[in-house]
Structures are given as C-alpha cells and as structure tokens.
C-alpha cells in the first residue's frame, strides 16, 4: 500500500514549478521533505491534495493503486489523504467541533451522533493538551500560530487518514509548542499511516524520526538519504547540496 508520485510536472500561473518529482510513500513510514524557501514544497503538497490552482502538466499520482491524478480534493480525502496547511484558514462563525464533525461525516457514509463525537473530540484534545474551551471556539479565529498547528493535528487525529502531508507544521512554533505538536504526531504514527513531513528546518526531526529524507530544490529532488543528510545540512546548509547536484 503506497502513495506513488510519478514524474510530476506542475505549473502555477503558467510557470513550471515542479520539474519531475517521483516519490513513493509507504504506509507505516515517515518521510521528511526538506528544501529552501520557494523550492516547491507547498506546491507539491497542494497538488497532491488536488488544489485546482496547481496545474499538472504531466505525471501521475496513485493512491493504493488507484489513479487519483484527476480527482477532486474531497474525493482524495475520502480515499484517506490529508493535508495540514502551512497557513491554516480562519473561519469565523464555525466552531472547531462543528467543523470537525462535518469533516468526519463527509468522509464516511455513516453519520456520527453529536454526543459520541464530543466524547472522541475531548479525548483527542486531551492528547494534544488542548483546553476543552477550544471545542466551541471559531476555527482558527484569533488563534496563535501554535494553536492553529495543534488544531491541524487535531483534525488529522479525528479523520485518521492513511496518508498525511504536513506542510511546515513546525513553522512559527516555540520549543514547547513544537514538542506538544510533535508528540501529537508521534501518537498518530503507526502501520496504517504514511506521513510526509515538510519542513525548512531540521529541528522537528529531533522529535519525529523520519525513515527517509528528501531534499527538494528548484522543483526537483536533488538528494535523498537517512539521518546523516541532516547533519550535513546542519553544518553546511542547502548550498552544499546545490554544489553537489550541479557537479554530478
Ligand atoms: P516552498 O513551499 O518550498 O517555500 P512553494 O511551493 O510555496 O515553495 O513555491 C514555489 C514557487 O512557486 C515559488 O517561486 C512561488 O512563488 C511559486 N508559487 C507557489 N504558489 C503560487 C501561487 N499560488 N501563485 C503564484 N506562484 C506560486
Ligand atoms: Mg511552503
């Protein structure tokens, strides 16, 4: 069971951003996708989820053997794909509780009863150390960066996806919030979930251990490896890979 990305070329507003990405994401494994700003990380996340702004010029995406390249975002969600946004939207007037129950109900054919849902929600919020008062707060309205990211992971824990793409879930978090969010993600890891952690910095990888790391630069994967690659990055920055990539 895997999410297969095959030679994906993607343009935004007529400009080619992803220039041939191939990746295989297996269930039960954690991947880190790293790269400097503007390398195309969020573009990949958006195109995997089916954001219509991003145009697939060529290539394909398969989810557990099914071609999902042309499916709508909600169809992909129903098949078990989940994206945590780099910049989560604020929706005033919609409570977290209502939003998440609607999201869960739209994923499956059987509807969950309100009380039963509240029980699950409270339990999941507890795991993420979120105060119960958040249940009735409007989605992300006035939330701090850390609270928004926690809410994204709460959404993931409720939806129980098979494949999750977490776009810079670590950005803007202080050390304490990063620990809580990382622990929350670690609790969700297991044999039925494949995760791509998108990050600019290696810090979150001190808390969440990836099986494999990919480096994206200028719309291409220029390096991949295990944790030694992070040490090199830490010491030498992304320029080092740029030089290696252009020399080979
Ligand atoms: P990253 O997430 O790695 O920082 P992005 O995928 O956000 O990179 O951006 C890659 C490139 O694509 C950048 O040059 C950016 O300006 C461009 N781009 C991304 N999204 C859009 C968009 N919605 N409209 C126009 N350009 C975009
Ligand atoms: Mg980004």
Number of domains: 1
CATH class: Alpha Beta
List the total number of helices: 8
The CATH architecture can be given as 3-Layer(aba) Sandwich
Overall shape? globular
The strands making up the biggest β-sheet line up spatially as: 6-9-10-3-11-12
Rg over CA atoms, rounded to whole Å, is 18 Å
How much of the sequence is in beta strands? 25-35%
- Cα distance, first to last residue? 33 Å
Structural class: alpha/beta
Proportion of helical residues: 25-40%
Assigned CATH superfamily: P-loop containing nucleotide triphosphate hydrolases
- Quote the average pLDDT: 92
CATH topology assignment? Rossmann fold
Largest sheet: 6 strands, mixed
Overview in brief:
The chain has 248 residues and is α/β, with parallel strands linked by helices. The chain has eight helices and twelve strands.
Tell me what you see in this structure.
The protein has 248 residues and is α/β, with parallel strands linked by helices. It has a single domain (2-89, 161-247), classed as 3-Layer(aba) Sandwich (Rossmann fold), CATH 3.40.50.300. The chain contains 8 helices and 12 strands. The protein has helices at residues 41-49, 73-78, 96-107, 114-127, 145-159, 175-188, 228-236, 239-247; strands at residues 2-12, 15-26, 30-34, 54-63, 66-67, 81-84, 91-95, 138-139, 163-167, 194-199, 212-217, 220-225. The strands form 3 sheets. A 6-stranded mixed sheet has the order 6-9-10-3-11-12, sandwiched between helices. The protein has a 4-stranded antiparallel sheet with strand order 2-1-4-5. A two-stranded antiparallel ribbon has the order 7-8. Residues 12-13, 17, 35, 37-43, 53 line the site of adenosine-5'-diphosphate (ADP). Magnesium ion (MG) is lined by residues 41-42, 86, 167-168.
